Amino acid sequence: MDPLPSPSPLATRLRNTLVRYHGIADGEWRVAKKTKDATVWRKPSEEFSGYLYKAQGVVEDVTNRIVDHIRPGPYRLDWDSLMTSMDILETFEENCCVMRYTTAGQLWNIIAPREFVDFSYTTSYEDGLLTCGISLDYGEVRPNFVRGFNHPCGWFCVPLKGCPNHSLLTGYIQTELRGMLPQSAVDTAMSSTLANFYSDLKKALKS
């Protein structure tokens, strides 16, 4: 088990990586799924043998409230149907923490429940916010769970130009689920999970 990293350099590195992803040209992405709430693209990840996914959609609310529902905190468990538990293990500053969370089984339990330990960081970006994270090799793996690993992931949330009560939410996700899984099942699950994330989030913000 690794010791906890120093938060400040990790936060800076993480932010820079996400900003770089945000600048990847449109032509490098392939559409993976499209719904009324969001479009999901993917491209081969530079971090592991799977894909980096990009999801984007317009959400009717202000950036701060949206990000409060996404980042680690009391809201997330209430609405995210995939997340089954969440504990904050360490808090470094108001915007930096280490959390452990578990996810439900997917695809009729072809994908068994997973556990993740992530470093999470929220910071300003342009007129909005960026909340991002990366997994750490920290803490004992609980029984009945496979420990997954999130390579640099994050959500950019900025006010929609000319429409301040709406926000453009763009996510970058690259999750290594680990365990013995067919890659096609993982790819199907990731695209659907990201599209559902938007519809679940919109319902939560309206309730």
TrEMBL record:
<dbReference type="GO" id="GO:0120020">
    <property type="term" value="F:cholesterol transfer activity"/>
</dbReference>
<dbReference type="InterPro" id="IPR002913">
    <property type="entry name" value="START_lipid-bd_dom"/>
</dbReference>
<dbReference type="GO" id="GO:0010879">
    <property type="term" value="P:cholesterol transport involved in cholesterol storage"/>
</dbReference>
<keyword id="KW-0446">Lipid-binding</keyword>
<dbReference type="InterPro" id="IPR023393">
    <property type="entry name" value="START-like_dom_sf"/>
</dbReference>
<protein>
    <submittedName>
        <fullName>STAR4 protein</fullName>
    </submittedName>
</protein>
<dbReference type="Pfam" id="PF01852">
    <property type="entry name" value="START"/>
</dbReference>
<dbReference type="GO" id="GO:0070508">
    <property type="term" value="P:cholesterol import"/>
</dbReference>
<dbReference type="GO" id="GO:0032367">
    <property type="term" value="P:intracellular cholesterol transport"/>
</dbReference>
<dbReference type="InterPro" id="IPR000799">
    <property type="entry name" value="StAR-like"/>
</dbReference>
<dbReference type="InterPro" id="IPR042555">
    <property type="entry name" value="StarD4"/>
</dbReference>
<dbReference type="GO" id="GO:0005829">
    <property type="term" value="C:cytosol"/>
</dbReference>
<feature type="domain" description="START">
    <location>
        <begin position="29"/>
        <end position="207"/>
    </location>
</feature>
<dbReference type="GO" id="GO:0015485">
    <property type="term" value="F:cholesterol binding"/>
</dbReference>
<dbReference type="GO" id="GO:0005783">
    <property type="term" value="C:endoplasmic reticulum"/>
</dbReference>
